[in-house]
Amino acid sequence: MNEEKVNIEDSNLINPSTSEKSGYKLSESRGTIKEVEFEKDLHCCSDYEVTVGKMAAFTVDNQNRVFIADIDQVTVHVFSAEGNYLASLGRQGNGPGEYHALTPNTSMYIHPDRIYITDGFYQGRAHVYLLDDLSFSHTINLVADNKNDYAELKGYFPGRMYPLNEAKYLVAYQRSRFDYQDSESIIQYMIQDSTGTIVTGAILEQKDLVNSVYNPPNGGTRMTSFPFYGKSLLTVSDEDHLFAVHDSKEIKIDIYDTKGEHIRTFELPFGNKPLTRRGLIEHYQNHENLARLDQYEGENVALRMIREEQNLPEYWPALESIFNDDENRLWVSTIVEDFEIYEWWVLEETGELITRFEWPRDEPIEVVRNGYMYTRQTDEDTGLQQVVRYRIELNG
Asked: Cys-Cys crosslink for 81: which of 5, 64, 201, 358, Cβ 3.0 to 4.6 Å?
């Protein structure tokens, strides 16, 4: 496919929820890039057999089957490429293949002929199912048997896990935010084998989220991690390359191998959106869901915290999220002037820009596989979330 320069002055967003074919113009030319279009292909997933409750995570395999972790029903629903219900994986319980809980922190990975589903409020284990017949294989204890041999892991617990080749796993160990509150903490990435044993010390370290602390008049402590302070990001390719963003304030991505050895770094220029206290307060006032931190403190807790913040940054971060697709391309969402959208950049693993497009923030892109893009969208009538599939068309 030949590439050509695209020079388009305007940036037009066509809402995919109202258009069967959505075209996204590039805001300006930044080198040799391609135009991209997305054609809506499928709404998934509910039928007469099952209605998905509150969705935790979802993923897609090479057959375009969709796997949805259901928080309410504590099971993983499986739908065919046509959106028909096939089966469920596991249920609530303590037995093999049963979940203590499925939560917003639950993660699911396809690698390569199995699906890994993390379980519990602190992701203490992962269940493995075979993709050929959807049968249960085994459970991995993510709290390593030899964790106490590593003094640096005292007070740390497993967070996300990433399946690697040769039956190994990358496990992110983190402290509870209530332990470190507004002090600094790090994420330590350890390699574990199929028995759950740590086989090497931390191969990579990243800073954890910055916490803001609020002490309400009626006592207690409230904490939140405001997005304007930035964060670290990580994604792992099928070739076991770790793509790490140590600070989302800039588009700077470091690549490591599973020994923690640095392979290369690439950086891309980006104009960060300026941040002011007045603009931040206005933004939170215009979004009720942001101003309400929890059901106990009522509205405007976030606004009170923002007014008291002593060291607000001058700019918003550059990056919100990053993940690999099945062709080892990087999909990166960037924070731009319009708070209703993210501008997504698709990159070769070398850092070369393939294309760039705008997409609504409230319809997050979560999986790209087999030439399709899968997003999470909320039905306006029922309030339930659904998975929507788009065919990707790269032109140029």
From this structure: 64
